[in-house]
Amino acid sequence: MNETQSQPSDAVLRDALRTVIDPEIGLDIVTVGLIYDVELNADVARVTFTLTTRGCPMEQHISQGIVRALSSVPGIASVDLNLVWDPHWHPGMIQEHR
Amino acid sequence: MSAPPLRLPGEHFAASLGFLLAGALGLWRIAPELAMGAYPAAPVVAVTHLFTLGWLTTSIMGALYQFLPVALNQAIASERVAHLTFTLQVVGVALMVTGIALHHATVLTIGLAVLSAGITLFVGNLTVTLRRSKQRELTWWALCAAATFLSIALILGVALAINRFTGMLGTAHDLALRVHLHTALYGWVLLVIVGVSHRLLPMFLLSHGGVERYGWWAAGLIATGAAFLTLFHHVPILGRELPLALLAAGLLVWVVQARVFYRHRHRPQLDAGLRLSAVAIGLFALAPLALGRLLLPGVTATALTTYAGILVLGAVLFVAAQYYKIVPFLIWNRYYGPLAGTRPLPRVADLYAPREAMIAITLLASGAAVVLAGIVVASVAFIKAGAVLLTAGAVVEARQLWGVSRSRP
Fold first, then answer.
1. Does residue B1 form part of some domain?
2. Averaged confidence pLDDT in chain B
3. With contacts defined as CB-CB under 8 Å, which chain B residues touch A57?
4. Domains defined along chain A, listed by start
5. Within a domain: residue B257?
6. Gyration radius of chain B over CA positions
7. CATH classification of the domain holding B63
8. Residues in chain B with pLDDT values less than 70
9. Which residues, 6+ apart, have CB-to-CB distance to B239 below 8 Å?
């Protein structure tokens, strides 16, 4: 297996993240606009994301959901989470439904 | 900051729904008194407190335990005290209401003592929590003021209850009742609604871009009005017309704030909870009109009963609406959340049937409207019909929420 085959693309990673939903809004976290960036260094995925509100009760489930979703992608050995509050999320960040 | 386990809010919500059902059924019993505008009658006072203390206050307590970590990044100071508070609250309300309804001094006294202990512990627990929180936003200020007014309402409520057997208040009874009613409904219930809804309505509606300062004005006006009423209740103008005008203005400004949130929403379709919230907000908009009538000469008992009815039923509907948001969310969070990222999961709204929820809110809203219409036109039949609708709505909602609570992946 060569390097290109073992490294999942950005689209593959984002598709995996779409399995995690914001249960109140009813959309996946990519469409909601919570995912700011996904970087891949070797086999480590670093996800920069936010939540709809500080102290969001879903923080644990969304964080763990991201880790579980990306860990299931071939070529990902570990996931590094980076929760940020700047820029602040607002509903205008919700993308058009796919 | 993690929320408390499901049990703490869950036990509050289960008991609250029981009080809602009892209150709705009680409306049938007190229909003759309501039609006459006999608001001080013992059965009316008893049923009113099933709604205000049993349904509204117990619901608020349970909801705050879940909400505080979200809004203020601060969990309740003591879960153990919160469980104790719950027991005292439920037992206290049940005994107090029974004591009032049966005019039984011993039962009432025990109920008051138990209830006072519960509310005092709750206020203490909430105060410690608020002191620990570093966030000084509208929600924080509103909850601080609400806790203060709950204490004042309790003291006056105890005095009014003792007065039923001793007559100790004499001519001050009406004054004490006015301050008690307004500190309880505006100072406690509405300030909590203003503070909490300032966080929850935009979140549920996905509202963005609207002016948010009206919420501050609403809380400020209501708190000032309730404070003036408490401090200067014996002074003409300063203790009556001015504070009542401030309360009315505060409520109207909050209605405007809520309307701004709804107009700037990114969620085109409203679910049952948000629809019933809108109905309740519309009902609240009528309260200042009814209050204005009270400031004119020749106030009738019917006008007073209508005014109090609008406030109580508006709050009853608003809280009932929040159950459709909070309970499914708690269940999702507890049982479905741990599976996030492993398989497709339902949305929170998928945990209940929307059609049944629409039936529940239609029954509740129409029940409240028919009861109020019955009070206005002095019709016992109308009030009884409204009681039936309200009870049916409460049964459908309780049944549906029971189903939600049993939902598992």
1. no
2. 95
3. 3, 66, 69-70, 329, 333
4. 3-89 (3.30.300.130)
5. yes
6. 20
7. 1.20.210.10
8. 1-4
9. B228, B229, B231, B232, B233
Region at B43 (left for phi over 0; alpha for psi -120 to 50; beta for the rest)? alpha
Q: What is the pLDDT of residues B88-121, one digit of tens each?
A: 999 999 999 999 999 999 999 999 999 999 999 9
Q: Do B348 and A94 touch (CB under 8 A)?
A: no
For chain A, how are helix, strand and coil distributed in percent, rounded to 5? Answer: 35, 25, 45
Cβ contacts of B2 on chain A, cutoff 8 Å: 60
So what's the pLDDT on residue B2? 58
Q: Which domain holds residue B187?
A: 7-405
Compute the nearest-CA separation of A63 from chain B (Å).
9
Residue of B nearest to A57 (CA): B70
**Spatial distance between the Cα atoms of B128 and B78, rounded to a whole number of angstroms:** 9
Q: Which residues of A touch B72 (CB under 8 A)?
A: 55
Looking at the complex, report in whole angstroms how far the Cα of residue B346 sits from the nearest Cα belonging to chain A.
7
CB contact under 8 A, B348 and A54: no
Chain B: nearest CA to A47, how far in angstroms?
14
Note the pLDDT of residue A98. Answer: 44
Element (H, E) at A22: strand A21-22
Number of domains, chain B: 1
DSSP result, B188-239: IIIHHHHHHHHHHHHHHHTB-SS--HHHHHHHHHHHHHHHHHHHSTTSTTTT
Chain B contact for A73 (CB, 8 A cutoff): no
